[in-house]
Amino acid sequence: MKTRAALLRAMGLPRPYAQSQPLRIENLELSDPGPGEFLVRVTAAGLCHSDLSVIEGSRPRPMPMVLGHEATGVVEALGPHTTGFSPGDHVVFSFVPMCGTCLPCAEGRPALCQPGAAANTAGTLLGGSRRWCDAPEGPIHHHLGVSGFAEYVVANTRSAVKIDADLPPQIAALFGCAVLTGAGAVLNTARVQTGASVAVFGLGGVGLAAVLAAAAAGAYPIVAIDTVAEKLALATTIGATHTVQAGPDAVETIRAITGGGAAYVIESVGSEAVLAHAYAATARGGTTIATGLPHPSKQFSVPAVSLVAEERTVRGSYMGSSVPLRDIPRYVALYKAGRLPVDRLLTHTLALNNINAAFDRLAEARAVRQVIMM
Fold it and tell me: How much is the pTM?
C-alpha cells in the first residue's frame, strides 16, 4: 500500500529546517506485515529530541529513514500467525522492541533487550525485516521499530502496548516516550520515596514528565532547572516546589534549597556538561540519573574519590528502566485519576506537512511536546 511519510535522506542539514527541509513528505510503498507483525494506522506522533538528534547527526542512524518513535494508532490488519491483537485495537508504541526471551528481558529489563537493540541499530523491525519498500538509493530504514511520522506503519507487535480506546490520541502518544522515560526515571530507576528531594535538569517533555512523577511520588522539595523562563513557570504548575535558572550559580542554589544536594538528580538534556552539574548538585549518598543521550564521542568524569567516600551513585536510565506492558497502563491509570496530568506537556498540535518548522521550534526550545495529528 501507499502511505505518506516523513523521510530523512541525509543527516546534518543546516537550520532553519523550514528552509533546508531535512524531512520530505513522500508517498512510500509499505509491504504487508509478516509473522508477528501488524499494520497500524497512526493517529498521532510526538516530536522528541531523540528525533532531532538524528536529524542533526549527533545520534547516527542508517539512512534513508522514516523518523518518529513516540506514536499511537489503531490496528488495521495482522500478519500471518500474529496473536495478541485484533483489528480495531488502540496501541501505544514502545521504542525498544521486547523479544521476551533474551537475558535482560527475562530479568525484567526489556529496555536492554538484546535483539531489540540490534534491530534498532540496523534500522529494521525485530527479527531483521524491513517493510518500507526500497528507494532508488537503497533500503528505507525503520526508526526504533516504529517510524511514527507516517500515516500507516508496519511494526512488530512486541513494539506496542494496548491502551483504552477513549484516551485522546494527542495524549496517548506522549506515553510512548516522554512519560515512559521521564516518569520511569523517577518511579523505576530512582524509586523515589515520599519526602525525598529531587532535582530535574532540563524541562523538555522527559524532564517535565519526571517532575510530574516526582510530585505523584510525594517528593519534597522538587527543584526544576532550565534556561527558559516559560518552562520554569510551567514546572511550578505541575509539581515543582522550586525553580532555578540554569547557569553558573545553579548548583549552589540547588544545594542551598535541598540542604547540601538533592537525594535524586535527573539530567534530561543529553549534555555531558549538564550531567556534571547534576552530579555536583547531588547529595552525599545520593543518586545522579542520566536520561539524555549525548553524542557518542562525549565523555563524563567525576572526582573518583567521591564515589567511595560519599557513597555516590551514577545511573543511566534508558526508556525509564520501564517494562512497557506494565508501566504504560499504570501511567495511563494515574493520568485518568488526575495524579499524572500528562496533558500539561502538550504545547502544540500540527499537521505532518509542518514537521520541519516544528523541529525548528524544538531546536530553539520554544516547545515542550508537539504532536502531529494524522
Answer: 0.96
